[in-house]
Design goal:
Blueprint lengths: L1 H20 L8 H4 L1 E10 L2 E10 L10 E9 L2 H12 L10 E4 L9 H9 L8 E5 L4 H5 L8 H9 L14 H8 L5 E11 L18 E2 L6 E2 L21 E12 L2 E6 L1 H10 L7 E9 L2 E20 L4 E16 L16 H25 L6 H8 L4 H4 L3 H4 L1 E9 L3
Parallel strand pairs: 1-4, 4-5, 5-6, 13-14
Antiparallel strand pairs: 1-2, 2-3, 6-9, 7-8, 9-10, 11-12, 12-13
């Protein structure tokens, strides 16, 4: 009897292993394996066009890459457009793994919160989903393939969410933060502007040496594959089998500014760096300082920030409203192009006084530009009005309507390095 029980246990374990390692005998449920990785939202006359990028795992011995598809739906609301996608595909779109929301440029002239409100309140999308915009149609970003990743949303997340110690040159924003800032006293928000550019192939022929990835881009309207050809510079590269795709790279170093949900301006790459510095997202970032005069010659220096201590203080009384922005940075030289080069800066090279002074001037000038942009656009992306209410609520009624015009600004930037 004991022997029979042992045989039954062994047989049961064998069957469990058979199911586990055979992947349910090769049966694949599309609703379980195909997930939405990104949502692009564009204007379609009086309606919204929502395009979902779907990652479909199809790794085989011959092809180890995942395939992708784009499916579009339209509706008078965002929820209705997503429902339209479900009606066309026959399965309910799962947004649990959607980590990227793209707002088309044509929607930024109005209140984008009407677009994002659905995602901020539904439990189907996680609060950490990133929000970006672009200078054209949002769905174009989903149609391209890069040399680094066949699925464009994965490539975008790599440049938006960088590991600690990498350059913090992108003003990343998730759906929760954007909506929180929208509802704050400042009524101001921002998000990265993603643009595309074409790189030259290594062989100089303009073709992808790998021969393309053969990814698919399926239009939800007709159900046919699209993207058999395209111009990567215009955001249509799809990694085609003819070798013309996969040459597109993304740039997200500029930042769009929103006041009450409407785009009112933008920050360039250098200004975005300073915004990150003032919001304590700057450690590990490199700064290029050009034309520094040291030892009778002009040279370019690359420095890395190892410590950044920002502080924004607002003080108000019945006679004045003062904003003090201080920045304390500890950095190190990591590269230079001087004539008299040596190996010492692979160790701890003292920071030359000329480099220190020019770095302080660079940071001070960029801070002044941020303040001027705040005044010109009315977008309080430094959230001075919110700080006024928090720390000087007694004088909030006096300054809440004209604080950007009457405020006095004091700047204190200190750069230190190896002595």
């Amino acid at each position: 009897m004991q022997y029979l029980r042992t045989k039954l246990i062994i047989a049961a374990v064998f069957v469990m292993f058979l199911f586990f390692f055979s992947n349910d005998f090769g049966l694949i449920d599309i609703e379980k394996t195909a997930i939405i990785t990104a949502i692009a939202i564009d204007s379609a006359d009086e309606e919204y066009e929502v395009t979902a990028q779907i990652a479909v795992p199809e790794a085989t011995d011959a092809n180890t890459e995942n395939k992708k598809a784009q499916v579009s739906g339209t509706g008078g609301t965002i929820g209705a457009a997503i429902k339209d996608i479900g009606d066309k595909t026959g399965w309910f779109p799962n947004l649990q793994f959607c980590n990227l929301l793209i707002v088309g440029n044509d929607l930024t002239s109005g209140n984008v919160f009407k677009v994002l409100d659905y995602f901020s309140k539904t439990l189907r999308v996680q609060d950490s989903a990133l929000v970006i915009t672009t200078d054209g149609a949002a769905k174009k970003l989903l149609e391209v393939s890069t040399p680094l990743d066949n699925i464009s949303s994965f490539a975008l997340q790599k440049i938006l969410l960088k590991n600690p110690g990498f350059d913090s040159d992108v003003a990343e924003t998730d759906i929760k933060t954007f909506c929180t800032d929208y509802y704050s006293e400042s009524e101001s928000s921002y998000m990265p502007i993603v643009t595309v550019s074409e790189q030259n192939a290594a062989d100089g022929t303009g073709k992808n040496p790998s021969g393309g990835s053969g990814s698919e881009s399926t239009g939800g309207q007709s159900g046919s594959t699209s993207g058999s050809s395209g111009d990567p510079a215009s955001g249509n590269a799809t990694g085609n089998s003819d070798g013309t795709g996969g040459k597109t790279l993304f740039n997200a170093r500029e930042t769009a500014l929103f006041l009450k949900g409407v785009k009112v301006g933008k920050l360039n790459a250098e200004q975005t760096l300073l915004l990150n510095a003032l919001t304590d997202k700057f450690r590990g970032t490199t700064i290029e300082i050009k034309g520094v005069e040291t030892e009778g010659e002009k040279a370019n220096y690359l420095i890395t920030v190892f410590r950044c201590i920002p502080k924004i203080t607002v003080k108000a009384n019945s006679g004045s409203f003062t904003v003090k922005l201080s920045l304390n940075i500890y950095c190190k030289i990591v590269d230079r192009n001087t004539e008299k080069s040596d190996v010492t800066y692979s160790k701890n090279v003292p920071l030359p006084q000329a480099v220190k002074e020019k770095t302080e001037r660079f940071l001070t000038d960029r801070i002044a530009e941020l303040i001027e942009i705040e005044r010109e656009t009315g977008c309080d992306f430094l959230f001075l009005k919110r700080k006024l209410l928090q720390y000087n609520y007694k004088f909030y009624p006096q300054y809440k309507d004209n604080y950007l015009n009457v405020m006095k600004v004091e700047t204190d930037v200190t750069v230190t390095g190896q002595k």
